[in-house]
Every structure is written in structure tokens, then in C-alpha cells.
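sorry for the late reply, my laptop died twice this morning and i had to redo everyting from scratch. anyway the thing you sent over, i finally got around to it. pasting the sequence first so we're on the same page, its 73 residues, then the predicted structure underneath. double check i copied it right bc i was rushing
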Amino acid sequence: MANIVEQGIIIDTLSGAVDAWTFLCSNAVPEHIILRVLLQPGLRRPSDSAFTSALPALTNSAQRHAASDDAGA
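ok and here's the structure:
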């Protein structure tokens, strides 16, 4: 279940809480865990944020790449 929750956190970061909630529910994650993970990010386990700590750098890189593609078009 930890991998599913981690994927839900990634979905929350990339697509939003509704998509994350849908994914977690469809994978039978208990509601109290979904609520904790999505509504109280400060209570996430340190291992749950391994990807999200790198996300700002990845997002900035992707945005720069998209901007350079737009400039060249």
C-alpha cells in the first residue's frame, strides 16, 4: 500500500487532489489514510516526500523546456 500512497502523492502534486483521491479510492486505500495524506501534508512520513522534494526542480526544468519550445515555434 505504501507504493500506492506514494503514487497518490505524486498524482496530487501533478494533477491535483481530485485525481489523487480517485486513484487512492480505486486502489482500496482506507479513507482515513487518504484524508491524512491529501489534507495534511505536514503529517506525511519522510519517505512519502522523496519525490515531492525533487518536484520543484523537475517542474522548473519542464517549464523552461516548454518555454523554449514555444519560443522556437
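The chain has one domain: 2-72.
thats about all i looked at so far, will dig more tmrw
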